[in-house]
Amino acid sequence: MSNLDNLTSKIISDAEVKKKEILNDANAKADIIIKNKIEEANKKASSILQKAELESVTIKERVTSKTELEIRNKKLAAKQEIIEKVFEKAKIKLQAMSSEKLGEFIKNSIMNLNIDGDEEIILNVNDRGRLPVTFLEDINEELKAKGKLGNLTFGHRDYAIDGGFVLSKNGIEINNSFTELVNSLKYDLEYEVGNILFAE
């Protein structure tokens, strides 16, 4: 199973775990908001009824419609925030992977890319220190076995990424940072995760 498949599976698994808790919380908050808004609308309507029955019906409908729209917008915003938290949690789990898994992730990702084999690997300072001393030698040997140049080097400039790596050559970069990977998966999985979290 590829790293992206593992990541996809983990995101969906985390979403399933959170589903019940999030639904209960969201429904309870929605019920309170609806109750308060309907009470407020009824008070306004009762006051207006004393002046004119027809006018009060129109105002009540308008207030109810506005309230329903506000509630819907608040629910949508809350759902979006929860979905963002699910993907943020996935990124945090990636950052916490062991040194061995990090090395495997970087190596497997690079081996699956269509590259020449003489690019720079750019890492954050912490992750670079976690890789084995023979990392470059091992990956270059595998690249040579695939008919590539096998001359990858570590980049010498600081790069503020949260984990993962960037491959650079002649000003062209392939960004495989954890943020970029999660963001790219977000577009594909956001709808599916939302359905898992909020399915009625």
List the helices and strands and how they pair.
Elements: H1 3-49, H2 53-95, H3 99-111, E1 120-122, H4 125-130, H5 135-145, E2 153-154, E3 164-169, E4 172-177, H6 178-198
Parallel strand pairs: 1-2
Antiparallel strand pairs: 1-3, 3-4
Helix pairs in contact: 1-2, 1-6, 2-6
Radius of gyration: 26 Å
What class, by secondary structure content?
alpha+beta
Helix content: over 70%
H/E topology pattern = HHHEHHEEEH
Distance between the termini: 31 Å
Main sheet attributes: strand count, strand direction, barrel closure? 4 strands, mixed
What are the low-pLDDT stretches, counting only 5+ consecutive residues below 50?
none
**Proportion of β residues?**
5-15%
Could you give the order of strands across the largest sheet? 2-1-3-4
Mean pLDDT: 82
The overall strand count is: 4
Shape label: elongated
Count of DSSP helices?
Answer: 6
How many separate domains make up the residues? 2
Protein traits:
four-stranded mixed β-sheet, elongated, alpha+beta, 4 strands, 2 domains, 200 residues
What does this structure look like?
This protein is 70% helix and 8% strand. By secondary structure, the protein is an alpha+beta fold. The chain folds into two domains: 3-96 and 184-198, no CATH class; 99-169, no CATH class. Strands 2-1-3-4 form a four-stranded mixed β-sheet. Strand 3 (164-169) and strand 4 form a beta hairpin.
